Amino acid sequence: MEHPDPGADVGHLRAEGVAIIAGSVTDLAGVTRAKYVPVARLGAFARSGMGVSPSWSVFCVDSGIAFTPTIGVAGDLRIRIDPEDLRVVDAGVAWAPGTLNDQHGHPAPLCTRTLLSRVERAAADRGLDVRMGGELECTMLSADGGPATTEPWSPYGIRTSLDRSAFLVDLATSAERAGLPLEQLHTEYGHDQLEVSLAPDTPTATADAVILARIVLGRVAARHGLRISFSPVPFEGAAGNGAHLHLSLSDADGPLLSGGDGPHGLRTAGAQAIAGVLDTLPDLIGVYAGSAASALRLKPGNWAGATACWGLENREAAVRLIAATPGNPHGANMELKLIDASANPYLAAAAFLGSALRGIGRHLELPEEIPENPAQSGVDTPALPLGQREALDAMETSDVAAELLTPAIVEALVAVRRYESKTFGGLPPAQICDALRLAWTC
C-alpha cells in the first residue's frame, strides 16, 4: 500500500480530484514524453525524481533511437519537477514541466530547459529584462486522423468558428483552470486550422506554456471527438502550422526595440539584437524547423518567414518587427516566424535569445529592411538552407551552433534529425505528411 510522502503537501491536489502527477521533458525530436506517479509520491518526484534512460533525449518521432558516441544503452537520468509548477490538465491528472538531472542532482548535458535557464541568466547578467510570447498554429482532425470537416472553409470566418464554439468554450475554460495564459484564439487561414496566442512571460515560462497549451489542446479535442496536429504540414498542399516566438528586451533605459532613433524607433542595441538573430539563421534552421516535414512549409508565399530578412509587419520575412503602437499593448517586439512545432520549444527559445544577445555583444550591423514581399523587393538576401539535409550540414559544422547550444546538444540533435532524414526524407511529400501528422500531438 502506498503511504503518503511526509514531505509533500498534496491535500489541495486531492481536493481538485488529482490522482496522478505527470512530469514531462521534450526531446530533441520535439516530442514531449512523461512519467507519472500517484499523487502521494509528489515529494519523491520533486526531490530525487523519476528514472529515465539517457536515450530519452535521442528518441525519434517514430520511436526509433538515434544513439550517438556518448549516448548508448547504459546510464540513468532523473526527471525532477517543481510542485509549484503543477497544473491540472485533465480529470484526475496534474502536470509539471521537468528538468533532466544526473543521479547526483546536477543538470544533464542534454537538458534543454536548463540550457534556456542559463541563457536567461546570461541576459539578466547583462542587465536585460527578457519577455517572450508564443503562438501555436494547429489543425483539427477527425478521431481517425483525417480531416475534421469536409465542407468549405472560411478563414477567420464566424461560421467556421461558431461551428466549433463548444470546443472553443471548453478550450478557454480548460486553459483557465490549468493556469494557461491564453490571450487570443481563432480559426485560421488553413482548413480546420486553429491558432492560440499566449501572454508574454519569461522565456522558460513561455516554453513551459507552449507545452501546456499542446497538452490542453489535445485533451479538449479528445473530449469533442477530435485530434490535434501540430505538424508543420499535416496534409500535402495544406496551409502549414507555425510555432512563432516573440521576443522583447529592455534595460535600465527602457525597451531596446522602441524609443530610439533607428528605423521604426529601434535603439542601437535593439537593432543589433535583430541583426544577431538574422546572422545565425543559416546555422540554426535545424533547430527552428529541422524536421522532415519542415521544408514542406518553408517556402516563399507561405507566410512562413522563409527569407533571411526583417521588416515592419512583414509576414514573409524571417523576422517580423512589431512596433510600439497603441494597438500593441505589450510594446515593440520581434517575431521569429521560421519556428514550427517540430522544434523543441526550450531549444528554439534558447537559440532565439542567444542569437539576439550575440548580436548585441558583437555590435552587429542591422541589414537593410525589406518592407515588402522579399520575392518582389529586388534585394539579394542571404541564402538559407531550407532543405533538411542542408540545414543539418550547416548546423553540424557551425561554431555558432556549438557556442549557443553546446556541442553535446548539437551532436544529439543532428543524430536525431539525420535518422529522420534517412527514414522519411526520400518519401513523397504526401507520405511524409501522413507519417508525421500526429508526431508532435500531446
Automatic annotation (TrEMBL):
The alphabetical list of record keywords is: Ligase
Origin superkingdom? Bacteria
- Record bears the keyword Coiled coil: no
- Any one Pfam family here would be Gln-synt_C
- What InterPro entries does this protein's entry cite? Gln_synt_N_sf, Gln_synth/guanido_kin_cat_dom, Gln_synth_cat_dom
- Gene Ontology MF annotations: ligase activity
Q: What class of enzyme is it?
A: ligase
GS catalytic domain span: 112-442
Q: What is its EC number?
A: 6.3.1.-
Entry's family note: Belongs to the glutamine synthetase family.
Report the PANTHER family cross-referenced here. Answer: GAMMA-GLUTAMYLPUTRESCINE SYNTHETASE, TYPE-1 GLUTAMINE SYNTHETASE 2
Q: What is this protein called?
A: Glutamine synthetase family protein
Q: What is the originating organism of this protein?
A: Mycolicibacterium austroafricanum (Mycobacterium austroafricanum)
